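tmp note - Enolase C-terminal domain-containing protein
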Amino acid sequence: MAPHSPLGPIALAACLQVDAISYNAFIQEQTLGIHYNQSNDVLDYIVNRDVFQYLEGYAAIPRGLGLGIEIDEAHVIERAKEGHRWRNTIWRHADGSFAEW
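out:
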């Protein structure tokens, strides 16, 4: 199993919990600190920013109530006021040709 979860802290926390009980989980996608999320990182939306711990390629399973994360509701409300104009990034090779993600 290889869950896809680049969308936010709730998705990542939920996937990690499923990974923890799945005997066939072998890889977990995540986008912490990735280049296309610089102004909108996964950690920006949670209070307990240290909950997602990685060491030598392994992820710690968040502990605590529910999924183990605490959402920063004030930050979510502020970001919601801004709205968004998200569009899929068009990636190009050095020669200008279209590139997949």
